[in-house]
Amino acid sequence: MKLKIKNKEQELKFNIGFIRRLDELHSVEIDVLGVDMQFGVGLITANVQLQQYSPTMLSDVIRAAASCSQAEADKAIEDYAEEHGSLDKLFDEVSTELKKSPVVKTTLAKMMGEKV
Q1: Beta bridge partners of residue 40, listed in sequence order
Q2: Which residues of the chain have pLDDT under 50?
Q3: Residue 69 gets which letter from DSSP?
């Protein structure tokens, strides 16, 4: 999937690097037997918030998929919304592409209680 970022079409890559970048943005810290442990919850959080059509999560997903800055992702989303009148189609495209990704699709399917 491609999206115009900084006036240039860029490929959004939903690969393992994408998941790592999302986990850096979204994690929880849990005390386990007196030891603070950090767990990435990026993909889980993204899945839930994309279903709720959260523009800030859409920006985080694009940021992680395009390896761009937050400001660049925000601007790309704002430009898309202005050009298309809404973000509906972009949400749908991102969600569809996530479900096609070989490293993401099984996790999403399991979260949704679907057979893989």
Answers
A1: 27
A2: none
A3: -
